[in-house]
Design brief:
30% of the residues lie in helices and 28% in strands. The protein has a 6-stranded parallel beta sheet with strand order 1-4-3-2-5-6, with helices on both faces. A 6-stranded antiparallel beta barrel has the order 9-10-13-12-11-14. By secondary structure, it is of the alpha/beta class. Helix 1 (32-48) links the parallel strand 2 (20-24) and strand 3 (51-58). It has 10 helices and 14 strands. GO terms for molecular function: FMN adenylyltransferase activity; riboflavin kinase activity.
């Protein structure tokens, strides 16, 4: 898959050697609804005998317009988004910088300066996709602005349990710790990518050594609690049990730093500094404070067995 980064303020030079069937959207999460839109664009590309493409934007619009505490965390980091799109068979990925120059374009200017210059022959998007300054452009308007120069397809909503599959719904599920339901909407487990750092070694002292992970900046992490996970390092995947939280048995919750700790089953080695992947499979319990270290150790052992049972059913 070819990746092309674009900025409106630098101009978009007309591409003449290819025509594109383009799926357009922010696509955070690349959930089942997004996948439907993208697959439609791929099918159209095959029918027309042209290249398939996806246009996404970076960063999220909230990072331009919202205050520091109103920015939306990412479900899928850009690197992961690229990996998934490549596996879906997309030929070209356009990453457009979401800055003031882009945000100021009228719907007409977006079509003329972006889509026409990229030699787009067909545009596919979700029924609720908007474009142009203040999101005034709709897919109905897109068809009118195309003036017959390119086709358009508006994909109706994809629902699960009679509710629209959406990034907003996924964020809510993650904030509630519902990682299994999140996986159902994504079509795959929710994934965190981060780096293993040196911790306080407390897990090792308790008999359950853990990998302490710092996730990528601005990424969503699930609700505090204990989870059954799959952990990947150096291309090898292991089962594990993960705790997200502030260690209330040891620290004051208002002062402690949130950590992600994974007890990786059947692993013995050095992970410090490594980039690792955590796939969240199911929620086991909420975070809690224990009256003694012995009670905590007993509960950790039970959590480990629970995780093993959950993961054995996923094989």
């Amino acid at each position: 898959m070819e990746t092309i980064e674009l900025r409106i303020d630098r101009g978009i030079t007309k591409i003449i050697e290819k025509e594109f069937s383009l799926a357009i959207g922010f696509f955070d999460g690349l959930h089942k609804g997004h996948q439907t839109v993208i697959q439609q664009a791929i099918d159209t590309s095959k029918n027309l005998g042209i290249a398939s493409a996806v246009m996404t934007f970076n960063p999220h619009p909230s990072h331009l317009f919202a205050g520091e505490h109103e920015k939306i965390g990412y479900i899928t980091p850009l690197e992961e988004k690229q990996r998934i799109l490549s596996e879906m068979g997309i030929d070209t990925l356009f990453i457009v910088a979401f800055d003031q120059s882009l945000a100021s374009l009228t719907p007409e200017e977006f079509v003329d300066q972006v889509l026409r210059n990229l030699n787009v022959r067909h545009v596919t998007a979700g029924f609720d996709f908007t474009f142009g300054a203040k999101g005034k452009g709709t897919m109905e308007q897109m068809e009118s602005l195309a003036n017959g120069d390119f086709g358009t397809t508006s994909v109706e909503k994809v629902a699960e349990e009679e509710e629209k599959v959406s990034s907003t719904r996924i964020r809510k599920l993650l904030s509630d710790g519902e990682v299994a339901k999140t996986a159902s909407l994504l079509g795959r487990p929710f994934r965190s990518i981060g780096t293993v750092v040196d911790g306080d070694k407390r897990g090792r002292q308790l008999g359950f050594p853990t990998a302490n992970i710092i996730p990528g900046a601005e990424l969503i992490v699930p609700q505090n609690g204990v989870y059954a996970v799959r952990f990947t390092a150096d291309g090898i995947t292991y089962d594990g049990v993960c705790n997200i939280g502030v260690k209330p048995t040891f620290d004051h919750p208002d002062e402690a730093r949130k950590t992600i700790e994974v007890n990786v089953f059947d692993f013995d080695g050095d992970l410090y500094g490594k980039k690792v992947i955590v796939d969240w499979i199911d929620h086991i319990r909420s975070e809690q404070k224990f009256d003694s270290i012995d009670m905590l150790i007993k509960q950790i052992a039970e959590d480990k067995e629970t995780a093993k049972k959950i993961l054995s059913k996923k094989d």
